[in-house]
């Protein structure tokens, strides 16, 4: 098996315990796994444990060969994986959709509050020693308040719903959402919130309406051909001037140039991003970093110690189960035709 990252504690122990039965080839550097190393070492592998930065495509599957049985991804998102190519070859795909929900939902709340309350801008001012020069005024460093907000979720899956659970005690007023699977929401009411919620939860029907009516937009959908740049100039132009947008999903769902323009022109109040197009290659002169009303953190949604330990453990378990034909902790359903969700 090939493992494209170093693992931690129990997960590494579990993997190492298999070294008598399995040849384990593991990328040793802290840098993302080198593509040519992966292609070379994938040859004859029966299982591969990958990260988001490792594309699982025809090239890799061809390089691996026909004995490949399983891919285990250290992630909930699987946009780096060509699912059709796996299905064609009957290769199983494991992922980690549940253990990171709390961590990402917690970060969603942090980013909403940072964006509304100008957290990034405030910290930057203090760190630059500007506090003593700040002229006091009742509206100094003020932003919109969360109580009374309408929250619009672009994507209303497990992480969005866990974020909603955390938002309810803040006194939000209403929720609107867009989901690619509206018919399944009753079945996928992950925390039993949607059925009898104290506030209205309604389908937005269109991205336009979601943009127009939300005070807070939370981007929590998968990246697909129909969600790439779903949020662009048109969307920003329809947003309220005091609205904020948070992205905890995938960078390319938001068109970064359009976001920079919307912030420059004060079309929206602020943004909180855990992800951005072309990450991690964001240099210090990137235009988004010149936006005081944008808080950008380096894709740390799942970065709690507990979550990362569990993700590592589940990934190894998925990998091993994929080799032996046993049930994975969580497996992506590849048997049906892959539909591209529509928004
Ligand atoms: C990453 C994520 O997996 O799970 C996902 O889809 O985006 C993250 O949790 C994590 O940052 C490891 O790269």
From TrEMBL:
Gene3D superfamilies: NAD(P)-binding Rossmann-like Domain
Alphabetical list of InterPro entries matching this protein: D-isomer_2-hydroxyacid_DH, D-isomer_2_OHA_DH_cat_dom, D-isomer_DH_NAD-bd, NAD(P)-bd_dom_sf
Keyword terms: Oxidoreductase
Positions of the D-isomer specific 2-hydroxyacid dehydrogenase catalytic domain: 1-332
All residue ranges annotated as the D-isomer specific 2-hydroxyacid dehydrogenase NAD-binding domain in the record: 109-301
One annotated Gene Ontology cellular component of this protein: cytosol
GO MF term list: glyoxylate reductase (NADPH) activity; hydroxypyruvate reductase [NAD(P)H] activity; NAD binding
Superkingdom field: Eukaryota
The family this protein is said to belong to: Belongs to the D-isomer specific 2-hydroxyacid dehydrogenase family.
Official protein name in the record: Glyoxylate reductase
Organism encoding this protein: Clathrospora elynae
């Amino acid at each position: 098996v090939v493992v494209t990252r170093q693992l931690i504690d129990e997960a590494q122990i579990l993997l190492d315990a298999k070294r008598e039965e399995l040849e384990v080839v593991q990328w040793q550097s802290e840098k993302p796994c080198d593509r040519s190393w992966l292609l070379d070492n994938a040859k004859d592998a029966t299982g591969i444990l990958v990260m988001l930065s490792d594309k699982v495509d025809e090239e890799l599957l061809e390089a691996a060969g026909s004995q490949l049985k399983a891919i285990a991804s250290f992630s909930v998102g699987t946009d780096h994986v060509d699912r059709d190519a796996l299905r064609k070859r009957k290769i199983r795909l494991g992922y980690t959709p549940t253990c990171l929900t709390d961590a990402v939902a917690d970060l969603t709340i942090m980013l909403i509050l940072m964006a509304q309350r100008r957290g990034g801008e405030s910290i930057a001012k203090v760190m630059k020693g500007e506090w003593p020069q700040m002229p006091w005024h009742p509206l100094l460093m003020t932003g919109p308040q969360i109580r009374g907000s309408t929250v619009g979720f672009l994507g209303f899956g497990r992480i969005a719903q866990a974020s909603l659970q955390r938002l309810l005690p803040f006194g939000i007023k209403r929720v609107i959402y867009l989901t690619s699977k509206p018919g399944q929401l009753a079945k996928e009411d992950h925390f039993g919130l949607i059925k009898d919620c104290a506030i209205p939860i309604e389908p937005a029907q269109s991205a336009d309406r979601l943009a127009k009516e939300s005070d807070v937009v939370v981007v929590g959908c998968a990246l697909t051909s129909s969600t790439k740049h779903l949020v662009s100039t048109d969307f920003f132009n329809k947003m309220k001037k005091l609205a904020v947008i948070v992205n905890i999903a995938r960078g390319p769902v938001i068109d970064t140039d359009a976001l920079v323009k919307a912030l420059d022109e004060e079309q929206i109040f602020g943004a909180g991003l855990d992800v951005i197009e072309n990450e991690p290659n964001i240099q210090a002169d990137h235009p988004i970093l010149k936006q005081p009303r944008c808080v950008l953190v380096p894709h740390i949604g799942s970065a709690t110690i507990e979550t990362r330990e569990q993700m590592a453990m589940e990934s190894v378990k998925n990998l091993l189960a994929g080799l032996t034909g046993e049930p994975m902790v969580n497996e992506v359903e590849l048997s049906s035709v892959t539909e591209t969700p529509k928004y």
